[in-house]
Amino acid sequence: MTYPEAEKFLLDRELFGWKLGLERMHRFLEKLGNPHHTFSSVHIAGTNGKGSVTAMTAAILQQAGLKVGRYTSPHLLSLRERVSIDGSAISEEAVCDFVARFRDVIVALECTFFETMTGLAFHYFAGQHIDRAVVEVGLGGRLDATNVLTPAVSVITNLSFDHTEHLGETMAAIAAEKAGIVKSAVPCITGVLPMEGRRVVAERCAGLGSPLIEARQRVHITGLRFTDKGSYFAARTAMAHYGGLFLPLPGPHQVANARIAIAAVERLIAAGLCPADPPLQEGLAAVQWPGRFSRLAERPLILLDVAHNAGGMRKLRWMLSRFYPRRTLFLVIGLLKDKAIAEILQALPRNLHTVFAVPAPTHRSLPAVELANALQECGVRTEVCGSVEEGIAGARAAAGEKDVICITGSHYVAGRALAGIKHLTI
Questions:
Q1: Which of 34, 158, 188, 275 is most buried by its number of CB atoms within 10 A?
Q2: Domain residue spans in the chain?
Q3: Distance of CA 311 to CAs 37, 162, 234, 347, Å?
Q4: CATH says 294-421 is which class?
Q5: Whole-angstrom distance, CA of residue 270 vs CA of residue 177
Q6: How far is CA 123 from the centre of its chain?
Q7: How far apart are CA 426 and CA 424, in angstroms?
């Protein structure tokens, strides 16, 4: 089997959509030899920030000398990005071997794309004898395919409204789904949660005898300085003082994510699963997580940020206004049709010159014309484009050397943007 054939087989599983529930996943993992029982893990849920916390936690553990598997979603350029060990994506050969060996099982069980990728990740991690896995939830938590894990630490980064068609229309309902990852006696670390959401998570933890740890109560940030290339700060905990930290992911929300990652690592230390005195300086400085206010080019400055819901867009707006308050801004944006479009548009940056509405390269895309109509109703100057590449070209033609172009929205848009302008140099 060639890699293109294996990749096509995996991507074709997307036709099965999302099938929330764990019975099929347990059956699948039994056929794989229950690989998830061979390693300890950190399991990370949340509306926003879970990918960043996953990347930070994995980077710190790797710098501490552990062999670390990382499972994230979605990908930007290649599905192999989802499954990595010590920062290196799974090889094409390993993907081919897995598909060739278990194709009949996958078809017979009618596994979805995400279930299949989760099985691939766990099987690969077990075969490579990793020390720890850091695993990001795909959707929700309670019924997510990754929730077969009994981790050493559970994490809920934050809670807001997204995927309400699957997770519920109220904060309590969403919190209940996310809190479904909490296991008996397993510590749960959280970011700042809305009052109603925190109540639900706290009740779940109390019922299971799981210590609830709020990161901001355990990790105190001092000396914080923001720049558009990252943040400088120190962190003090009951265990240690970590000075001279630099995080190359800009914005206060990323510092909040780092606080969660630090709290998670310290719980692993307390459990004897990570060496004491973890190299936080090296770990945080080494974090690579594309699409989070990433700089793709200069003159004009081109930024890439996967702000695909209202919470993410508000964070993007803060950073653009903080770092480039007097620079003209052009936006290239494409969204999926299942998003809360009105809420996202209300959170758009205020100093927009022109927005280039593009289709996300997926059947789930909101048509660019519909997006443009909604933008124009908000009083935003908008141009309709037939592709991500056309939108980027239009923005580059309109922008001056001192202006800012921000490409944002769906991960599908970000991936196409990276593929389309990777020849540009910073």
A1: 188
A2: 3-285, 294-421
A3: 35, 9, 26, 8
A4: alpha beta
A5: 28
A6: 22
A7: 7
Give CATH for domain 3-285. Answer: 3.40.1190.10
Q: What angle do CA 299, 305, 308 make, to 5 degrees?
A: 145
3-state DSSP assignment of residue 264: helix
Q: Is the pLDDT of residue 283 over 60?
A: yes
Burial 357-381 (b: 16+ CB within 10 A, else e): bbbbbbeebbebebbbebbeeeebe
Give the type of residue at 341: I
Query: Percent of the chain having pLDDT more than 90?
Result: 85
Q: Is the dihedral of CA 397, 404, 77, 371 positive or negative?
A: negative
Mind giving me the DSSP string for 119-152? HHHHHHHHHTT-SEEEEE-SSSSTTSGGGG---S
**Three-class SS state of 317:** helix
Residues in Cβ contact with 97 at an 8 Å cutoff, skipping those fewer than 6 apart: none
Tokens 């969403």 belong to which residue?
Answer: 174
Element (H, E) at 314: helix 310-323
Q: Is 426's pLDDT higher than 60?
A: no
Q: What angle separates helix 23-31 from helix 113-127, to the nearest 10 degrees?
A: 40
16 pLDDT more than 90: no
**Cα–Cα distance for residue pair 69/131, rounded to 1 Å:** 8
Is omega for the bond preceding 74 within 30 degrees of 0, making it cis? Answer: yes
Provide φ and ψ at 325, rounded to 5°. -65, -25
Question: Could you give the C-alpha distances from 206 to 42, 211, 218, 262, in angstroms and in order?
Answer: 20, 8, 19, 23
Contact 43, 154 (CB under 8 A): yes
**Residue in 271, 360, 368 with CA at minimum distance from that of residue 308:** 360
How buried is 81 (Cβ within 10 angstroms: 0-12 exposed, 13-18 middle, 19+ buried)? middle
pLDDT value at position 337? 87
Longest dimension (CA), the chain: 59
Range scoring the smallest mean pLDDT among 214-223, 261-270, 337-346: 337-346
Q: Give the CA radius of gyration of the chain.
A: 21
Q: How far apart (Å, rounded) are the C-alpha atoms in residues 119 and 106?
A: 10
The pair of three-digit structure tokens given for residue 120, joined into one six-digit string: 């691939």
- What is the 8-class DSSP label of residue 184? T
Mean pLDDT over 120-136 rounds to 98
Distance CA 308, CA 339 (A): 8
